[in-house]
Structures are given as C-alpha cells and as structure tokens.
Amino acid sequence: MSDGHETPPGWSAEQPPPYRAPGSPYSGGPDPSAWQQPVPPPPPYGQQGYGYMPPPALRPGIIPLRPLGLGDIYDGTIKLIRSNPKAVLGLSAIVAAVAAVPVSIGQALTLSSIGDLLDDPTAQPAAMEGGFVTQYLPTIISSVVSLAAVTILTGILIRILGRAVFGGKITAGEAWRLVASRVPALFGVFFLVLGLILVPAIPMAVIFYAAASSGEPLAALGLGLLFMLFYIGYALFINTRFALAAPAVVLEGLGPVQAMRRSWRLVGGDFWRVFGILVLTMIIAWLVSMIISFPFGLIAGIVSVFGEGSTGATIAVAVVLAVGTTLGAMITYPLQAGVAGLLYTDRRMRSEAFDLVLQTAALEQQRQGWVHATADELWHPSNARRP
C-alpha cells in the first residue's frame, strides 16, 4: 500500500528509511551524514560534569593555601630553605657549630685515648677513666648549649616561615628583632614540656633501684623493660601534644601556658596524623644526619689511629667531627622547625577554616604587588574562624 511516499531501494515498508535532512543528496542507501544527532543540553550551572577540574589552590608562597597533605608539608619545608637560604641555613649553621664544638672536642679526646691504648695497652685503666670524663662532660655541656640555641633558632625559623607562606622574605636580623621578645616564652614552653617528660622518671627510677637492690635481677630487668616501653610512649605523647606550642608562641604571641593549651587543642583534633608525621620527621632527620656525618666520623677515626694521640691529630679530629656534625644539623634543624610550623598551619586550616583568612590576605597582597610586614598579624587567634 502506498501512502504517497516512495520507499527507497533496499528498504522495506516495515523498516522505514532513516531521517534525511532537507536538501541532502540521496545515494540510494543509508547516508550517515544525513542523520541528525540530538545535542544534550549543558549541565545546570554549579554542577560538576564529567572531566571537571577544580581550580588550583592559591599558592603565593611555599605552600598552597588549603589543608596540607604530607607531601605539601615536606615540599613546603624544602621551599622554605630554598626561598631564603641565607637566613635559614646561615642561622642553622651558626647554632649547629656552637652546639657541636664541645661534643666534638670530647669525642676527639676519646678517640685520642683509644689511639694511646693501641700503642700502650698497659695504660688502659687511666685512659679509660679519662675517656669517660672527656666524653660525658663535653656532651652535657653541648646538650645544654644545643637545647638553648635550638629553642631560639626554632622561634626564628618559624617567624621566617610565617612570612614565607605569603611569598615574602625576611632577613635573619629582622627575624631576630621580631622573635627577641618571645624568647622567654619559648624557654618557658621548653622547660614546662621537659618537666612533664621527666616527672614519671623519678618514681620509676626509685622503683627500679629498689628492685635491683633487693637481689632479684630478673624482677629489676622486667621492671626496666616495662618502664622503657611506658616512658617512650609517654614522652612521644607529650612531645606530640605540645609540638605546636612554639609556633603559637611566635606567631600568635601567646604565653607559655596559653601556647601549650593552644597546642593541646589543635593536636587533639587529629592526634595520630600529627604523631605519625612527627615520628617520620624524626626518623628522616636522624637518617640525614647519619648519612652526612658518617664520612667525617670515618675520617676522624683514621686520623686518630694514625695520629697516635698527638696534639695535631686531636685538633684535626675535633675539626673534622665539628664540620660533620654542623653540616648534618644545618639541614635537620630547619627540617624539624619547618614541619612543626606547617603542621600548625595545617591544623588551623582544618579546624578553624584559617585557609580562607590566608587566601583573602594573599589576594589583597597580590593586588598591591608586595607582602607587607602586617601579614604577620594575620596569625593572631582573633582571625580564627569556627566553621
């Protein structure tokens, strides 16, 4: 039956031909170019379709202004060193050298006494007694100097980091002028945390001594192992909970107790993540220090053995050890301070939406074309937002 339309060759009445656009030529068969494909409408505004790429985070300085991942924290720490190497590495080298000199002298004297023992085994008792004195006394002195110097250095590096987040630079002298008034609070935090760490050591030492003096070595050994496990966990817990106190002292201008409370609250929201990053950083710092200082220690040992305890060999050994220790600490000090500062920044972003504050300030500074010193005031807790 015909309805006025002709059926093209090759098509039956039950299978109608495809739609043909007006004016398109007909070649006697299906013409793919004549098909009209429906075009899907665009997705409604605000919806993320397939292949949508969010805009990159604003990054005026060493980190993107959004919550940070592990890679962002380490990358930002490296960029902190590279963006201001004179201030960061220069100050770290000075502090590391001051702390390394006493312990290097003690190690040199100990190696010299070992060289004497190799030449004259009969002098072993006197040499060993002198070796203990020369080893531990300089180590104690070096530890005290190191703790004091590192406390101040940490504050200075965090102040440099606070400006580097916005892409600004600060000289070592300017950083010291800004941190000088915060040094007493930094030492307050240090001694309070140290006291908390040492508190359980006193009763545990008394119990251990009582068990050892009772004539039961197995009980004393068991108590000693339990004490070590407990004490290591306790020390790591305290160190993690108050790891962000120094940044709070420097960047927010808080006192020691206020800064410790601030750190406790910030870390409490994500304790295990902060704990893991800090432990990983300590391991990395130890490995870097060992890798850098190992060749110098090997050279010092060779010089000590072949120098036969001479004054010149002792001086050479002390210099070599001091150089190796300084180079290792010059890298590890900024690493640990940078990670602490960026962890503090990350925790404020996650718990206080602080990234919005930083983004707004960074856009304004980009519009002006420079980073003003007033950027330091943005770290004040009054700028915190509660999401």
Automatic annotation (TrEMBL):
Alphabetized UniProt keyword annotations: Membrane, Transmembrane, Transmembrane helix
Membrane among keywords: yes
Domain of life: Bacteria
InterPro entries reported in the protein's UniProt record: DUF7847 (IPR057169)
Low complexity: compositionally biased ranges: 22-37
Segments of this protein annotated with the region Disordered: 1-51
Pfam families documented for this protein: DUF7847
Positions of transmembrane segments: 87-109, 140-162, 183-212, 218-237, 271-303, 315-344
Domain DUF7847: 85-332
PANTHER family registered for this protein in UniProt: EXPRESSED PROTEIN-RELATED, OS08G0107100 PROTEIN-RELATED
Name used for this protein in its record: DUF7847 domain-containing protein
